[in-house]
Amino acid sequence: MKKLLLASAASVLVSGAAYAEDIKLGVILGFTGPIESLTPSMGDGAELAMAEVSESGLFLDGSKVEAVRADSTCVDSAAATAAAERLITSDGVKGLMGPDCSGVTGAVLANVALPNGIVMISPSATSPGLSEAEDNGLFFRTSPSDARQSVIMTEVLMEEGVKEVALTYTNNDYGKGLADLFKAAFEAAGGTVTITAAHEDGKADYSAEVGALASAGGERLVVAGYVDQGGSGIVRAALDAGAFDTFHFPDGMIGAKLEENFGSEIDGSTGQVPGSDNPGVDKFAEMVGDKFDTTSPYTGESYDAAALIMLAIQAAGSTESADYKEKVMDVANAPGELIYPGELAKALQILKDGGEVDYVGATAVELIGPGESAGSFRQLKFEGGKMETVQYR
Length: 393
Prior knowledge:
By secondary structure, the chain is of the alpha/beta class. It has 14 helices and 16 strands. Strands 7-6-8-9-10-15-16 form a seven-stranded mixed beta sheet, sandwiched between helices. A hairpin with a 3-residue loop joins strand 13 and strand 14. Helix 5 crosses helix 6 and helix 11 packs parallel to helix 14. The longest helix has 18 residues. It starts with a helix and ends with a strand.
C-alpha cells in the first residue's frame, strides 16, 4: 500500500511539472526613436514584475515568465506592426506589454492584436482616440488619457497666472490630439492660445518654427513634443533666439534628458507627468533600489501593465487572451485585497485559492471606462536646473 501511495505521489509530481512551462510576454517599446531615453527603465519595470512572478513559483503551478523585447520605434507604425506580428506569430507571446506611443499603439491594436485576439496593455499611450478604438475587450492602459492631461495643464498654467500661451506640437496622433484638447480646455477657462503650430521631428534647425511662434507672442511656450527629438530642438532654438525663456512641458517632454539638455536655462518652467503619491511609489522604489530609475516617466506604469497581464492570467487559469481579457478589470479594481509592488506572490496565492485582489501597484491603478486608468498627475516646476514636484493632482 505504501508503494502504491508513493507511486501515486510521483505521478502527481510529474503531471505538475509537465504543466509548468515558460510563458512568453512581449515588451514592445520605442527602444529607438524620440523617447529612447525613457524606454530602458520602462522595459526594466515590466521585466521586474515578470521576474517577481517567475520567482514566486505560484504562477500557474510553477510556470516561468519570459520577456521578449521588440522595438516599436514610437513613431513608425509599419515597423511597430511588423515587430508586434513577429512577437505573436514567431515568438508565441501570450500578451503585449506596450506599445508606448499613441500612433503605433493604435496601429498594433488594429493590425495585430485585434486580428490575432491578443491582450495588450500600454503603459503610456495617452491619445483619447484610443478610448473609442475597436478592441473587442483586448486593449487596456495604465496611463490616463490626454483628455485629463489637458485639463491638468490648464489648471497649472492658470494657477501660475499665465493666461496667454503659444503652442507647438509634434506632428503625429499624440501631439495633435493633445494640442487640440489643451487649446479647447485653456480657452474654455478664459485663456488665449496665440498660435497652434506643428513641428516635425528629426530636423537640425527649428529657427523658422520658433520665429513664427515668437511673432504670435505669449507669456509661455507650450511644447507638446518629445524630449529626445523635435521638442528639445524647439526649446533650444527658442532659448538661443531669446524668443521664450519659460515653457510648459506635457508628459512626452518630461525626463532626465530635459535637465541634462537645459539645466537652469528653463528655470521657472512648468509641466506635468502621470504620477502618484500612493504608498506603492515608495514600495516600488525600495524594491528596485539602484537597479534602474523608478522616477523616470512611465516606469511604474510599465511594472503595473505587466503585473495586470499576469494576475489576469492567474485569475482565469489560462494564458489564452480570450479567457483572461475578462479578468483584467477584475484584478485591477475593488473588491479584493490591496496589492502593492513586491506583493505579486501574495496576489497569485490569493487568486489560486479563489480569492479576489484589488491591484494598486506603483501607480494607484484604477481602470475605468474602456480599460483606461483614472490616473493622477505629478505637477512639476523647474528650479535650480532640476525638476521639483509641486503637488499631485
